[in-house]
Amino acid sequence: MESNVESVKDILFNPRLLAPSKHILLLSHMRANSTLIGHLIGSHRDVSGYYEMHIGYYSWKSLINQKLHFHQGDPEEPVTKYYFDKILHSEHYVSADVLLRENVVTLVCLREPLQTINSIVKLYSKKHPGDSFTQPEFAARYYIERVNMIVETVEELVKNKQRYYFYDASNIIDNTQDVLNDIQTFSGLKTPFSTSYRKFDKTGERYYGDSSEYIHSGVVVKKPAETLALDVDVDLLEQCEKVYRQSRDYLLEHTWSACVHEAV
Questions:
Q1: Which of 13, 56, 227, 255 is disulfide-compatible with 93, CB 3.0–4.6 A?
Q2: Which domain of life is it from (predicted)?
Q3: 213 CB contacts (<8 Å, ≥6 apart)?
């Protein structure tokens, strides 16, 4: 069920929630700097949302649910023209029909596998030592499944000639302004993003993204490289690399490009 009594009350007390809005949805995977990009996007004056809401997107009703879900958790935040969410797990289904809607802006991001798996294992070993994600093989299989699911979803957009914007996870740190400029243009936002960001109520909290000290800085920080040694089957790592390379090539081939857009 996508509606409940609390949601109805929210609409009655704040009918602006039913006003037309645009929705920026990021398709990615864990440990791809998505907390950072969420804070940078969510700090824009016309955008609400900065963390993973852990909801699915099944129909147009899900977009209203996104707004209700955010304001129930962050009642002090204003109603805005845009709403952001990131989807990092395949159990939170995203229908291609939703992404094909005119008021939905689709972003896609990948991080190379070895750093991703390192980061997942390191995080869960520290924060959730009993979790399956502390096992490198489990993290690697999650990575393969998730990247394949992202590409399957994007293939539906490509078939329907729908645009999306792809960026590498490393570029949000190494080329922050360029990525933010592209997202601003692609999404239709009138004013630029800042390379600094707000600290929100849920910044750094468990289950709401990156809980390291870096996210509290308010600016983009280049983290030291992950150094955890992994005991992963060589063939499995090669499979991860193959999936990453093929997926990244495909996503780059069909992504919206600011240069192409300006030349048309």
A1: 56
A2: Bacteria
A3: none
C-alpha 131/C-alpha 186 separation (Å) is 38
Q: Is residue 231 part of a domain?
A: no
Q: Which of 35-44, 92-101, 152-161, 252-261 has the lowest mean pLDDT?
A: 252-261
Residue 42: which domain range?
5-112+142-221+244-263
Of 37, 70, 36, the residue nearest 54 (C-alpha): 70
Residues in contact with 242: Cβ distance below 8 Å, sequence separation at least 6, in sequence order? none
- Identify whether 133 is part of a domain: no
The fraction of the chain above a pLDDT of 70, given in percent, is 89
What lies within 8 Å, CB to CB, of 231 at 6+ separation is 136
pTM of the entire structure?
A: 0.91
The Cα 155–Cα 149 span in angstroms is: 10
d(CA 174, CA 171): 5
Round to whole Å and give the CA distance between 250 and 243.
Answer: 11
